[in-house]
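Posting for a labmate who doesn't have an account.
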Amino acid sequence: MTSPSSEYLIQVKLDGLRQLFQEQIDFFKGKLNLPTERWDDIWQAAHDRAFVVAGAQKADLLNDLRAAVEKSIKGQSIGEFRKDFAAAVAKSGWTGWTGEGSKAGEAWRTRVIYQTNLASSYAAGRWAQLHDPELLKVRPFWRYIHNDSVSSPRPQHKAWGDSGLTLPHDHPFWLTHFPPNGWGCRCRVQAVRGPKAGDATEPPAGWDTIDPKTGAPVGIDKGWAYAPGASLQAELGRFVEAKVAGLPADLGRALEKDVASVLDRQAKVYETVDDFIKAGREITVTLPDGAKDPRGCYQALLDLLQKEVGIATPCKVSSSGAGAKLVKEASQLYPDAWTKAADDLGALYVKIDKAQNARGWQWTEMKNSVIKLKSFGIVRDVVPGTGWIVTSQNFGTAVHEYAHRLQSALPGLDRLFQDLHKSRTGGDPLEKLNVITPIKYSNNELSRKDKYLDPYQGKEYSHAPDAPALEVMTMAFQYVLGLNSNSKSRIDFEQLYLQDRNMFDFVVGLLRFWKP
């Protein structure tokens, strides 16, 4: 049997019969048929799972065209593809498509469909091949190869090839510059042991500069700044949700059913603390530096969460006033699904304490009982799940106390923070907070201080022996989400980013991927 290290060095051409390999076919078969009016309705990496012929609206036409393209990937010539294309168009009565009505226009349109799908499916198959663990052991570098036979070479593509650009396989360059890098691009990537003498070992200066005309790095066509086959599952999910919303009900249900198997097959599963730390790190490295530009990092994170998760919905509060308003604003920083879970738990009442050094608190009563609460007095006939919050005027306090409410509604989320605390403080003694800090805490307030930014984060509560570290989650969210005009909140954000990066990444990973 051919070894991986030799198999992947085979020069595969993009002219039909001689470029067939299984990973390429598997990639194309994993695509979905999604109706679209313009090719750029499906942006960049969403093409990984969506077969698009711009303007094709009918499902039967998409199926016929898809079948024609699949034959091409398996070796059908462009002439044979053109016959199948003409038959599919005639059968469906599709009109008004770009190129229709002239021999040259129809030749151009069919060539674009034929070559683009062959090139992108080839690239995705190569991406899968090049990531084979056995191959990476012996050939961990990739070299950019320009196809010098093209009639009008792109200057940047030619420069990358002529310089022998050779980079580690996990260099960020490949996430946006893995060929094809535009319509008709026939560049490719070769796995090598390492750079040769004279090879460029760093991308040219400005390689990641965005061209405002295309929204892609200079030298990359609009919509091509992605590595086929490397897109995130979340992006497909977001695209499908948006697309289903605009389809007729019956077609939307059919699409969701079709998509479900693909999503289930490829979805990443996040279960452990380490899973979420790793997922968060993959996000935070794409944001502005949280130490150098904390407000830029914070805003970019909120923009991402709003776009990919949804964080705009305020919680329901059964009382009114400044405290209720502040807590509602704080709740809008958390995923909508989390806020809904807290709303479903029961009614929430909020007051504000305007004293200079006020300490906030939260209580959720899970029994049908009579309780006495500071600021609220005696409350009779409590409905289980009812909650009360007292917040100071500080926005970070509101973020913190609402996180306590979420602990009651989402015990699975808090369990991850309990696991993190146990792993960090195993064997550490409980110490009095009024001894290890200059603050006048009560004698019964104890903490396993670890290396938390504030020892209070490690405080353990005797009334909750199974999950005693109730401040780990709340302070973590306060540090990350509580940034405001207060200078201390900015310092807290910076310090967490610098001094406890795993905690920062953990919070980001949970905000993006944890679901009730």
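Reply:
Got it, the structure tokens are right above this. Residues 1-21, 23-62, 230-235, 261-267 have pLDDT under 50 and may be disordered.
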